[in-house]
Structures are given as structure tokens and as C-alpha cells.
Amino acid sequence: MGISFTVLSSGSTGNATVVTNGETTLLIDAGFSARRIDELLQERDLTGGEIDGILITHEHSDHIKGLGPVARKYNLPIYANEKTWDAMNKSVGKISEENRIVLDSGEVKDFGTLRVESFGISHDAAEPVGYSFYDGDDKLSVATDLGYVSDKVKRAIADSDVLVLEANHDIELLRMGRYPWNTKRRILGDMGHLSNEASGEAMSELLTGKTKRTYLAHLSRDHNMMDLAKMTVRDAMEERGCFFKETDFKLCDTYYDKPTPWDKVSKP
To answer: Domain 4-264 belongs to what topology?
Structure first.
């Protein structure tokens, strides 16, 4: 069947993504109330009972707000590395031992025919990660909440058919914005969030004939806009000699308040 996915919602108010190959269905992060997650799933004709497990990228509240309630409600296993478990224990609440599963950073785990590879990223969390998903020739990678795209991350997400990649802020809008300087400095730093420009710079190195779409994710509602993000990413790619036609490669939207349409990684 191959891989299909929907970004249920993405942004500073909450994050959750569903990845499925028809045999296994996984939720990446649970950054909303259990009720809101149920609503978002229903918008894509899913129920919590159809989820087989939850992968966690890191312990910040916009990624685990509803984790405990959702996992308990549907008796779901949670996969996270040791340091992330330690950091989120109090927030998540009581989880049965059989559902507390350690997935080390860099580990590869097979869920039936769906293979998941965890890779470390740079962010101000205990041990944040991104994930790549494989089924046959399909590869989908999800990398958000990272201050910069290291060579290690580039190797992990290289040759993806589809990327979900952070484009958090426009640098000038952030600098002129209402946040205190220490918050701005955190966001702009190597342990913060990826700017539109940095996202475009990374894409100029990552774009190959295999990569067909990149979903720009985790956009700041205060310091970014989707049209601006796409324009800046495209300009940054072209400045580095990376030109493309919409028929060959597309920059796609994500939303803070609604899911993206289902997308099949390898479209006919």
C-alpha cells in the first residue's frame, strides 16, 4: 500500500501527525487535549482506536499535552527515548509499564512492514528527535523543532520522497516582534527553531529527483505567514542554484487549526 500521512496540526499551540501504511498507524506527538485530538482524527475519518502507537519527538507541552489521556483512553504504547521519558514523566502521568517503551535516538524499529528510524536533532529539550518512515521504496521524514539542520540530520532525511520540515519564523519579523530578547535569542539559536531562510538553505542541499514535496511546518503565528514562508524558502533555494518547477517539486502548507489532506507518499 505504501505510506500515507496527514499533519493533523502544526504550530506552537500544538503538534500531531498520523503516518500509516494500511497495516500500522502511528501518531507522532500528541500536543493537544485528548478531545481535540479525537476531533482532528475524526476530520480525517480516523478514531483513536485505529492508532497502534504514539511516537514522541520531545517533551515540550505543544507535543505531549494530551499524551497521557490519549494513551490511557485507547491503551496505546508510547515510544520515546530514555531522557525524554525522564523529562515528561510528571506531565504524562501514570502509564502502564507495558506501554512505556524506550526507543533510543538513532534506533530503527519495525512495525510490521513500516520501518521507523529515529534521529537526533538540535533543540532545547532533553533528547529531541525526528523520524523517518520507510515502506518498500517509500520514505517520509519529519523534522521540526530544530535550531539548525546538521550534517547528521541531512544524512538521515536525504532521499525522502516527502519531507515535513520546520519553517518556523521570518527572521526580521521575529526581531521586530513583541517577544522579549531572551526568547528571541533562544528561537534564533542553534537549540531553537528553524527560520524560513535556514529551511530553504537545507532544502537546496536535500532536493533530489526523488523528493517531490516538502510540507513547511511549525510556523509561528506571530512571526510568519505561509505565503511568506514558501516565498522565502524558494528564494533561498534559488539563491543557491536550486531551481524547480511545480510539476517536479512542491512546497505544501500545514495548519495550526486543521489537518492537511491525506497524502500518499508515492503518488501514481
So the answer is: Metallo-beta-lactamase; Chain A (3.60.15)
